[in-house]
Design brief:
The structure is a homodimer of 329-residue chains. Chain A has 329 residues and is of the alpha/beta class. Chain A is built from eleven helices and 13 strands. In chain A, strand 1, helix 5 and strand 2 form a beta-alpha-beta unit. Chain A is elongated. At the A-B interface, helix 3, helix 4, helix 5, strand 2 and helix 10 of A face helix 3, helix 4, helix 5, strand 2 and helix 10 of B. Strand 2 of chain A pairs antiparallel with strand 2 of chain B.
Chain lengths: 329, 329
């Protein structure tokens, strides 16, 4: 089948000129237009160009790549991202990567090929090579490269606030609970790690002992892994704990309660996310509240600015957090 | 700008022939092709046709129209629908209608214009007029017309099972709690209503008094409306209740607990959905479990059969439910 290149060669013009003729661009001389149309006719050229040119038109689709939309945190983000996109006449393509590296890479590949207008990515693996620069990308909670803007909450300060709120509530023996990361992943780029650093940093500066009780983020029953933590005695002395994520914290409280530990009387708990206002949470968890709606709308606005050819904003947008007092502190 | 019609008139051919020339169809005589290409050139015709023809190609996009993806039930459905679509090489466009009629109609309009391959619709209002027949549609939990297949769970049986499980747990004074529907909406088409009918029907056949405590599904604090129910004394005699939806049931339990009512000792509660296995629920709710994953994958498979030109399946696919015993009965 004839290619745009062969049409350009036969007409003695550049590929751009062929494209302009097909798109009926005014800045083409009538003689040139005639030569190109003759070459098109001579080579029986059209269908691929039809598709290619349509693709060159502005796509009104934005893709959201996240681990799983059935996690409450991502469901809230997806809801507000779609709402903001719709207000700007864009449609949302939803992609669940399940947090798996090969699935994240696969989706980047598919989205690059399908020429979406832009991508909002919440990735947990090294996808740097997949960001080609052809399509604007905004990340949430993770840095891919210096050229990609990242929207996140003030994670470091969130960790600090959590520590001080536990102290205020009378905690003497605090601990941290989160997921350890795969050693093959460059965790330096994860904003989420900053919560731990802010929390443990505050403990250190106040010279308060504060064990880090991280467990691996593997498949299987989280409840059982939390139970093991109790059984090893790691929590014996602990009277207050900051847990990296509200869903994680709720599971922790459930296991603790089943072991007869009273929350907050015996053990005070602060989560991170602030999902208590969503339809999801019934547990009245004390938590560091991220401005989820604001994060979602900011990510969309930054992305669409880049889509419209605006300058690439190479910064990290850290939106302020606040402490949401529930019934677990 | 020149239209395909004016090109056809100038060339003295039908619109279909113009289309075939543009698409390089082999069944066009060289003389006819020349006449059409000359007319195209004379009228400076192309861009619209470029777009139109591209749209005629098979779209690999399927839209999911639901009230809000940040509701746990819809989040679970969306997750599995996307997973199944991806396995079939389709992408998911997510649309949150917020359950508002004008938003549902708006999205149908947008999706019809954008020529998605198909639509999976979870609607709560009269959208019958928007289903044009051009694009295959599958509904979940609601009948739009006799020509649209509906995937749902066995709601009527679910209501019956809930009633009998409450009796088994020792309940003497059962009640039903759900949302009343807008009187302007044709509720006869809602599968969700069948849960109530199954439940109250079972009470009637056993000659057990069973009040229907429906409240309006309006915006605002659900907790306050539940609180009012308690304050009116409607629940004074009740020792067991079936609540239409797990999120609703969890909110109810929270209010009851705050009033010093012990669940399940004083009051037994069964919800509907079976979200207890999801990351959402920590409340160990007893519930009628819908086969959510199966419903999602079935909806996708039925839709893609229709997209591939298979016969329209005009049936209701009621997938079996089962009772999930938690800690609230």
């Amino acid at each position: 089948m004839a290619s745009v290149k062969s049409v350009a060669e036969l007409a003695g013009v550049g590929i751009g000129t062929v494209s302009r003729v097909i798109n009926n661009h005014p800045a083409v001389k009538p003689e040139t237009r005639d030569r190109v149309l003759e070459a098109i006719r001579a080579l029986n050229y059209t269908p691929n160009e039809v598709a290619r040119n349509f693709k060159m038109q502005k796509s009104m689709m934005v893709a959201l790549l996240l681990p799983a939309v059935n996690h409450p945190f991502f469901a809230e983000l997806a809801y507000y991202i779609e709402d903001e996109l719709d207000q700007q006449n864009y449609k949302l393509i939803l992609c669940n990567s399940k947090g798996k590296p090969q699935k994240e890479l696969y989706y980047f590949d598919v989205l690059n090929k399908n020429k979406v207008a832009g991508i909002i990515a919440i990735t947990y693996n090294n996808v740097d090579q997949s960001v080609t620069g052809d399509i604007p990308v905004i990340t949430i909670d993770r840095h891919i490269s210096h050229e990609i803007a990242c929207v996140t909450s003030d994670n470091f300060n969130g960790g600090r606030v959590a520590f001080n709120e536990l102290l205020k509530a009378g905690v003497k023996h605090p601990a941290f609970l989160g997921y350890t990361r795969d050693p093959f992943i460059n965790t330096a780029n994860s904003e989420v790690e900053l919560r731990k650093e802010g929390y443990l940093g505050e403990a250190q500066s106040r010279q308060i002992k504060c064990p880090n009780l991280e467990i691996p983020d593997i498949e299987g029953d989280l409840g059982e892994r939390i139970l093991k933590l109790f059984e090893t005695g790691a929590l014996n002395e602990i009277d207050g704990i900051f847990i990296n994520g509200d869903v994680f914290a709720s599971r922790f409280i459930k296991v603790a309660t089943q072991r007869g530990i009273r929350v907050p009387e015996d053990l005070k708990v602060i989560g991170y996310d602030g999902l208590a206002k969503s339809s999801w949470d019934q547990s009245q968890l004390s938590s560091i509240q991220q401005p989820l709606e604001d994060m979602a709308r900011t990510a969309v606005r930054l992305l669409l600015k880049a889509v419209d050819g605006g300058p690439v904003v190479q910064t990290t947008h850290r939106l302020p957090i606040k402490f949401l007092k529930g019934q677990t502190t």
